[in-house]
Structure formats: C-alpha cells, structure tokens
Amino acid sequence: MLLTLSGSDTVGNTIELRTESVNATQVVSTVNRLRLNGGPEEVFTCSTTTRLTRGEYLFCRLPTVGAEGYTLVETQPADYLDRTETLGSLSNGGNAGLVGNDIFSGIRVRNNLVTGASDRGTGFLFGEFPVFAELGGRVYLEGSVPPNVQDDDPDEDPPIATELRLSCAPASSGDTVTNTDIDGNYRFSRVPVGATCVITELQPAGFNNAYNTMGPGGLSETGGAQSGRGDSTIQLVVPPTGSFGNNFAETTATAGLPPQKVPTSPVSLVILFLLILAAGAPFTRRTP
Predict the structure, then answer these.
(1) Which range of residues forms the domain containing residue 61?
(2) Is residue 279 part of a domain?
(3) Quick one: 259 exposed, middle or buried, by C-beta within 10 A (0-12, 13-18, 19+)?
(4) Domain check: are 117 and 170 in the same one?
(5) Cα gap 270→47, rounded to integer Å
(6) pLDDT in tens, 89-112
(7) Which residues lie closer than 8 Å to 6 by C-beta, 6 or more apart?
(8) CA 244 to CA 266: how far, in whole Å?
(9) Which helix (H) or strand (E) holds 269?
C-alpha cells in the first residue's frame, strides 16, 4: 500500500514523502522517498526499535510542520474495499488532525528534519477489507518416527507430486487446478473472501490416505483417517487472511495388498500393554 505525506515546514519549504506499508513480519526499517520544494527525489532509510509487521508503515525525519499541518493520503490498494479510518495521536499532545476517506489532514507534527527528535505520531490507521485471499497447504508422505498427525518438514515428511482442484461458491477468479511444487506445497490465489470452497486432492498413485489437516476456516474433510485409496477433500469458508495448512498426508501402498494403516509406534504398544495389565484382575502372590 502506497502512502504519501505532504505539507510545508515553518519557513515555507514544501515537503512530499512517500513510503509503502511493509509486507512481512519483524521488519526493522523502511524506505522513505523525499521531494523537497519539488526537487529531485532523495531516498533514505527509516529504522525503528519497535519492529513492524504486515500493513504497518513508517515516516521519519519530519520537520516541524507549518500552520496547515501535514496531509497523509493512502492510495487505494487493488482488490480491497474501503473500511473505516482511525485518527491517531501525537506524543506532544498537539492536534492530530481530521480524518476523511483514505486521508488525514492537519496533522501538527513538531520535529527535527535532521535528528528526528521530539514528536511521534502513532495509530493513523487506514481500514481495508480484502476482496480475495489465498489458500494452500502441502501433500506429503507421513514419514515421522514414530508417526504423528502433523506436517514436520520435507526432510522428515517427503513431498508427493499430485494435482489439486478447487471449487468455490461464489467461483474463484484465479486458477482452479494446480500441482504441488518440489516441496509438496500448493497454492490457489484470488479466491473470494467468504466463499465456501472445496479443495480436492487427486489420489497419488502408489499411496494410501493417512490423514488430512484443515487450515483456518476449515469445516470438514473426507478421505483422511487412513481411509484407503481415493481422492481426499477439505471444505472451508475463506477467511480474510487466507487459509494455509490444508494438508493431505499419505502412507506407502504395498502392491497386491489392501491399504495399510499408519503403523502403531513401539512406545504406543508398551503403553497399551501396561494399561491392559493395570486393568486386569488383581495380582496376588501365594507363599508356600
């Protein structure tokens, strides 16, 4: 998301700063682009001790603003719908300005262009709601010892190549057929937020179903729980933040034999044996 901060300082210099919201977590710096009095663009880095996360933004090196204050504008991002903006506050207690649709005006920052000392503005929030989200997960051979019901990593749970299909209501505007990548991952893009969707894994040859795990928004699944051979599905309602972790796990198939279940670990057998002993008739000892 592109944001532009503009205004004039106390001696009449015009200032235009641009930056973009971050698209990752644990971000420690962002880039600002400054035009002073309409001159050439100066690019510099803003660093912060408070790490930024997705959607957050940072302006720095702001001079004390003139009487009209700064204006902060968001360029409406594609594939998002407007929601409510929230006016922030200034650490100096000054006038934080007025709020409009995708704009804050009259922000009375008092700061130093060189050192960045003094004032701080926080909480100037632009509300947006995504039209589309992404769905994804992984297809893999459950290879953990002892076996478990979670995706560990490609070294422990090797990837499996197969095709996946997506059907949604309302329909997705992105691809509805995809294949797993080299690590067994798959992804569907431009899926309508709020849609009810079914992800279908086409049963890979030479494998049996082990289990499925559902990501956020998951409603139900079929074909897991060591059900043998056959396509598996996961049904979900697409949340605004998307849904990953929709995984399909497999076990190896033995030629000419019925589908094999995930083996019981030796530790489980020992525990089961001890439970049987504990539940049996009381043990008595007879002395001669």
Answers:
(1) 2-130
(2) no
(3) middle
(4) no
(5) 56
(6) 998 888 999 999 999 999 998 875
(7) 14, 15, 16, 17, 70, 71, 73
(8) 32
(9) helix 266-279
